[in-house]
Amino acid sequence: MKKLYKIGGILSLHDDELQALAIPERVIQVKVQIPGADGKIKTFIGWRSQHNSALGPYKGGVRYHPNVSQDEVIALSMIMTWKNSLLQLPYGGGKAGIRVDPKSLTRAELELLSRNFIDAIYKYIGSDIDIPAPDVNTDSQVMSWFIDEYIKITGKVDLGAVTGKPVELGGISVREYSTGLGLAHIAKLAADKFLDGIEGRSVIIQGFGNLGSFAAKYLSELGAKIVGISDSKGGVLNYDGIDVNKALEVKHRTGSVINYPEGKKVTNDELLVSQCDILVPAALENVIHKYNAPKIQAKLIVEGANGPLTADADEILAHRQIPVVPDILANSGGVVGSYVEWANNKMGEIIEEEEAKKLILSRMEKAFSEIYKKYNDLGDQDLRTAAMVVAVERVVKAMRARGMI
Ligand code: NAD
C-alpha cells in the first residue's frame, strides 16, 4: 500500500483516486465443506478477491495453503491488477485462497474440495467475468476439476473460464515452462542494459522448483553460467558451472539438489550473498531483507518469486545501485501464457507451441522496453517504481475513461 501511495505521488493522484485503486471491488468469502474419510464433516474457509476490472475480467490464481488469509488474498489480487496492466493483458486482477493443507487431504477429498469451491463461487466467474488459474499448491489437475464442475453447474462449455488446464482441455503445453522461459529472456534484456550482455554471466538461483529449474535451463541456453542453485534443504555452488540437466536428474533421484556431486554445499542464507553477476530468488517471499541486502554481491537481481525483497531491501539495493527487475515483469510469463490459452479457448483455436512462445516473449519484451523507458524518464527511481508507474497509470486511464474515478 505504501508503494501505491508513492506511485500516486509520482502520478499526482488525489486521495479519492488512491482509495478507489486500493479497495477491491468485491471479496467473496466462502465456507467449503467436505465429508472426511473418517465420516466427519471438514470445514474450510476460502476467499476470492476481485480487485479491479477496469481493464477486463478479473484474472489470477487460486492457492491452497494452511496460512492463507483474506488480507493476503486481497494484496495478491491487487498485484495481479498491476501485473496484467503492465503486460497489456485485457484483464483486471483477482486472487483466491483456501485455508487448507492440501497434503493432509486424500486425492478424493482434494477433488471434492476443489469442486465445492467452484460450486460456491461459480456465479462470480466465467471467461468474461473472472478467470481462475493455478497458484501455490494447485495445478492442472485442480484446474481440470474446476472447469469440469463449472461446465456441469452452468451447462456452458466455456473452456476459457479457467486457465492452466491440461492440453486435452484446451490448455497449452508452454504453460508449464512459460514463467521460467520468460524470466530467462527478461534477465537477458536486463543484462544487455546493465551488464554488457548475458553471455558468460554467472547466475545463482534460489529455488530449483518449476520456475527456478526452467529459468536455469533457458538461462544456460542463452549463454549464462549457472553457478549456484538451492531448494528447501540447502544449496550448492560451483564456479565451473552447474549442469542443469544433471541437477534435475539428481533432484528427481535423491529429492534435493544438495546431492549434486561437484561443488560446495551452502545454506540458503550463504547462497544469497555469494559472488555472482545475476541473482534470481525463485523460492519464497521476503528472503532478501535489511540484514542481508548490504551483503549481496550480485550486480543484478531478477525476481522470480513474488515479493522476494522487503521494502527495506529495495531501498538498500537502490542505494547500492544494484538494479532489481521486479516480479510483476520477471515472473509474468505464467499469466501471459494463461492469456494465450484463454484467447485460444475464446476463438476455438489450437496454437502451435513455437507460436505461443513467440507471443509470450514479445509481450514481455514490450513491457520491458516500456519500463526501461519510464526508468530513464523518471531518472531517480528504481525499476520497480517505473514498472508500477506504467501499470497504475494504465489502470487509472481506463478508470477515468469509464467514470470509475
Ligand atoms: P515450486 O514449488 O515448484 O518450487 C519452489 C522451490 O523453492 C522448490 O525447489 C523448494 O524446494 C524451494 N524452497 C522452498 N522453501 C525454500 C527455502 N526455505 N529456501 C530455499 N528454497 C526453498 O514453486 P514455483 O512454481 O517454482 O514457484 C516459486 C515462486 O515463484 C513462488 O513464489 C511462486 O509464487 C512464484 N511464481 C511462480 C510462477 C510459476 O508459473 N511457476 C509464476 C509466478 C510466480
UniProtKB/TrEMBL annotation:
Binding, substrate: 59, 83, 338
Gene Ontology MF terms in the entry: glutamate dehydrogenase (NAD+) activity; nucleotide binding
One GO biological process term: L-glutamate catabolic process
Keywords from the UniProt entry: NAD, Nucleotide-binding, Oxidoreductase
Residues the record lists as binding NAD(+): 179, 210
The protein's name in its UniProt record: Glutamate dehydrogenase
Keyword presence, Oxidoreductase: yes
Active site (UniProt): 95 (proton donor)
Gene3D superfamilies reported for this sequence: Leucine Dehydrogenase, chain A, domain 1, NAD(P)-binding Rossmann-like Domain
Domain Glutamate/phenylalanine/leucine/valine/L-tryptophan dehydrogenase C-terminal intervals: 173-403
